[in-house]
Each structure stands twice: as structure tokens, then as C-alpha cells.
């Protein structure tokens, strides 16, 4: 049984549930089970090597590169949008303002730290960040997942993480937010099959968006309403989620470069060096 860990946000559920509903399956007959946890818990679990396959923040991948391969599917990127730094309308942020972030290894936290080195950071479950700003526990917070769609009217967006990313990049590279990683101890033929199965699941989900969305809403596993779900999936679970394209790879490499320059990562990485070598399958049957 292969355990796939993912976040409980709508795009991860959407991309995985074609397997749960039996719409796609493994060509090797591998069986899957899933667990849903918040993204920083998943990042921390990946660092410990807890699950076979896990959704992760791209910002966390360099810390697990020796034990996990990076998958090409199930990805979420921002393109002109993404996490939002929010505050109360009446709050003026000083250089050392207190901010709530969703986790040390999340992409948004890494980019935030580069832009606001003097800020005082506390880490919280992403579902608690809005209330922490409202009740005055922190001066500001970075909202992620579905929280970016609908937040309290007393709050305003101070800055888009996308805008910070764009300034660092100097080009409109897509913002690498969520990816997936697979344990290297899994045999190569199994690993190739797992990636292929997950890719098919995302492709089938995207092609059958209306049907799958309705089923998820009827089962009450989604935190948003039908309209918000449609908006959110258009942002983070779409044709660009099926398999990494060249621009997305450039975005990942840029994130790794920024992290290395800031001494967050210990080596300069290229994502292309960390994928499952699927060419093995072609050689095997040639």
C-alpha cells in the first residue's frame, strides 16, 4: 500500500480524488491510501521521511533532496496571484512588525523572509492566521490556500507575495508553491508507475472538473462553496498542474537560486537533476 499525503485544501483533494473514486489505477496494481494534513506538517513529515509520497512546498524540497525525488505532477503555481500579506485597515506596519506565516519551509515564508528580514515571525496553522490578525495577536499574516479568496472585511492586502517574487525574479516566471515528492527507497519501476498514476489522476480530474467538483461538494470534503471552488481550481488545479513545463522548471530553479544566495539552502540546485528518471522505462522495453 502506497501512502500519499496531501493537504486538505481544494486543489490537492481535487487532483488526488480521481484515484479515490476509482477513475484511474496503477498499471502495476499498486494500491493507494491517503492522508490529509496541513502543508507545514507535510513539510516536516517529509523531512522525517514519514510518507511514501507527499505534497510539499517547493521551498522545502532542498531539505529532503537526498531521500525524496521530485515529481513532475500535482503541482500548484501562482501566475499573477498567490499568497497575500494582510493586515487590519488601521494598522501601520513597522520594519519589525509581527507576522504569522504558515510554516518555516513553505515557499511563501521563504520569499517573505527575503523581503522582510526584520519582521518578527510566528508560525501557525494556515487556518489560524486570519483570526490571529483580527484579534491583534500579530500585526499581519500571510494567507494561503482558499483563505486568499474570502477574508474578513476589516482586513486589507498589504502586499502580494507574487509581486515580491516578480521583483526578485525580474521576469514573470510562475511562482512555485506546491509540488510532490516520492521516497527514493521505492523501486524505480514502482516510482515510475506511481508518478504515471498520479499524472493520470490529475489529467482526468482536470478534464472532468464539473463532475468531480460536484462529487467533492456533495461529500462535504471541501471547505469552500461551489463558486469559490471553481475560482480556486482555475488558479491552482488546471492544465498546468498535470506535468511541469519549462517555465515552471525555471521558476523552481529561481526559487532554489534565491534560497542558496540567502544561505537558506546549502547547495545550488537544478530541479531537472532531481526528477525520477523515466527514460529507464523506455530503455527497459527497447
Task: Summarize the SSE layout with pairings.
Elements: E1 2-6, H1 10-20, E2 32-36, H2 39-48, E3 53-57, E4 68-70, E5 76-78, E6 84-88, E7 98-101, H3 107-115, E8 120-123, H4 129-134, E9 140-143, E10 155-160, H5 161-169, E11 175-183, H6 188-207, H7 209-218, H8 226-236, H9 246-261, H10 279-284
Parallel strand pairs: 1-2, 1-3, 7-8, 7-9
Antiparallel strand pairs: 3-11, 4-11, 5-11, 6-9, 6-10
Helix pairs in contact: 1-6, 1-7
In short:
Helix content is 38%, strand content 19%. The chain is built from ten helices and eleven strands.
Please explain how this structure is put together.
- The chain has 286 residues and is of the alpha/beta class.
- The protein has 2 domains: 2-77 and 175-284, 3-Layer(aba) Sandwich (D-Maltodextrin-Binding Protein, domain 2); 84-169, D-Maltodextrin-Binding Protein, domain 2, CATH 3.40.190.10.
- The chain has 10 helices and 11 strands.
- Strands 1, 2, 3, 4, 5 and 11 form a 6-stranded mixed beta sheet that branches.
- Strand 1, helix 1 and strand 2 form a beta-alpha-beta unit.
- Helix 1 (10-20) packs across helix 6 (188-207) and helix 1 (10-20) packs across helix 7 (209-218).
- The mean pLDDT is 91.
